[in-house]
Structures are given as structure tokens and as C-alpha cells.
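As agreed, record passed on underneath.
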Amino acid sequence: MPINTMTDELTWQETALCAQAGPEFFFPAPGSSTREAKQLCNACEGRLACLEYALTHDERFGVWGGLSEKERERLRRTRPAGYCAPGVGE
């Protein structure tokens, strides 16, 4: 079933592990490590929904769904048009 409302689209945020850490953890200063943020993302059950949200809404800064800005841009260029991560938007 497709996601129809912004509320449905953001339900993953309610249980996301990032809600327990400050924004500076996921939006580090330029040149700082993103390793810890990515580790937390990889343990989060909302990771794929978060990543899909970032790709859909063209989030250009920070770590989203376990990927940095550059990694999301690379994914955006290589994934097929209209692709949605498995388990997202069903």
C-alpha cells in the first residue's frame, strides 16, 4: 500500500534510534567522522525508511539511513528511476 500522508511517511521516526542522540551526531562538522552515526543507523529498524525519506526529499546534509551525503548522491545516480527500498512504502 503506498504512503499517502506525511504522518504515515514519518512513523519510522517514532522508534528511530537517532531520536536518542543529538543532531550534531548526524550532522557533524565538515571533515568529522560519520562512523558512529552510521553504526547507530545500521542497528536501527527504521534505517531503510529513513534512507528512502532522504532520497525522496533530496536531503543534502547529514547521515540519513546510514549513508553520508556523498554516498546518497552516488546511490541516487545509480538506482533505477522509481525504485523504492524493499519494505518501504508497502
